[in-house]
Amino acid sequence: MENAITLNIVFGSLISMLLAIVAYFIKQLHSDFKNMEKDLTEVKTMALIIKTEFKSSYSMLNQKVDYLEHRVNIIEQNNLKHSGNEK
After folding, report:
1. How far apart are CA 54 and CA 31, in angstroms?
2. 8-state DSSP, 87
3. Whole-angstrom distance, CA of residue 80 vs CA of residue 10
């Protein structure tokens, strides 16, 4: 009888220790997921900032190209007028 009680105490202690270890690792895993969620939010924010910067740069570049095309057209028209007057 005494052996059965001792055996129950040993197994109970062992199971308690194993459950404590499992609980510790689950707590660490939960903490890691929180950190990962925070990092993912930062990455999304940075990606949005970069996307916005690229869009604004692309828009500015298109405006410059349009302006240069307009200037080239004016220069071409002036050249055509001058070459037409010379003949």
Report:
1. 35
2. -
3. 103
CA distance readout (Å), 84 to 71, 80, 87: 20, 6, 6
Q: What is the pLDDT of residues 3-34, one digit of tens each?
A: 888 889 999 999 999 999 999 999 999 999 99
Alpha helices in the chain (DSSP H): 2-86
Question: Token digits for 70?
Answer: 């307009």
- Give the dihedral sign, CA 9/13/19/20: positive
In whole angstroms, how far apart are CA 75 and each of 7, 22, 43, 79? 100, 78, 48, 6
Measure the CA–CA gap between 82 and 74, rounded to whole angstroms. 12
Tell me the residue type at 59: S
At residue 86, the pLDDT reads 67
44 alpha carbon, distance to own chain's centre: 3
Place of tokens 């200037």: 71
